[in-house]
Amino acid sequence: MRAVDLYNQLERDFVNSEITEDWFEDKSCYDASVEAYICDNFMRRSMGLLCDFADEVNRVYTAVFPSDKILTKILEDDVSDAMLFLHHPLIWDLSKDPNIAFYQMNVELLERLKERRVSLFNFHLPLDNFGEYSTSKTLADALGVEIERAFNLHCGALCAVIGKTDCKDVHELNDKIAQIVGHKTKLYQYGDSAIFNNRIGICAGGGNDLGVVNELIENGVNVLVSGVAVNNAYSAAVHQLEKENNVNLLGATHYSSEKYACMAMCRYFEKLGLRAEFIEDIPCLEDL
After folding, report:
1. Quick one: pLDDT at residue 24?
2. Are 135 and 205 in contact (CB under 8 A)?
3. How far apart are CA 135 and CA 258, in angstroms?
4. CA separation (Å) from 11 to 138, 228, 259, 272?
5. Residue 261 — pLDDT band, cuts 50, 70, 90?
6. Which fold has domain 129-251?
7. Dist. CA 185–CA 162, nearest whole Å
8. pLDDT tens-digit readout, 81-103
9. Mean pLDDT for all residues in the chain
10. What is the CA radius of gyration of the chain?
11. Phi and psi for 130 in degrees, rounded to 5?
């Protein structure tokens, strides 16, 4: 498939005029060595084609972050004329420094991908926006939650969902999440353990947010499932809001709460006639 045709198809299927991104408002996200590989499209829009390295795409990989593990796996496969579809254009890692979340891609690995004609493509908010492949929707599907509606409009994207779970209390739900994602999770029990009317809010990734929690309070929902749940200087205000309003918080890590969307995207690419593979990464438990 011609690479430009694939890029255009992704734009048609996922981007609307309301969605905006701002990765490059903080110019520290990439230094000059990495910026040399970033295409003008991404520098201008902070979404879409990230690194334009291929004219043809015969195979697609999907991943949440462009970590060394992900880029190395593609190189080890010795493929050419391929594309890496990413949910984030930067690496997430709170284990190094709790005050620094994102890190830029490895320049040496980018150079090798360029030599192998492997493009990189990024949809953050376009993939968060409610739809068949979106982050919170696919997490709800993995948890067996019956979606009632989407909410939390952020930069033109509806990033969260409210739905019904078959779990009766937050301890049962926390155990279920841990079993599904395959690692420990974190429960901040700030209210009644019972799940009111079996309704929960789900906002994958960095969804433990003041706006999200306020909407849940307005809708009588006392449980939020998210990715990053750690109580630190950055999140202290939202934790306080949850305590004051008896909203329980369950964290599954940034990576594990968003990986289901990238897994689902393999179906999307296969429908276009492309071989697609999701690459597993390592969750950052410091998120909890």
Report:
1. 64
2. yes
3. 5
4. 20, 28, 21, 14
5. very high
6. 3.40.1390
7. 20
8. 999 999 999 999 999 888 888 99
9. 96
10. 19
11. -55, 125
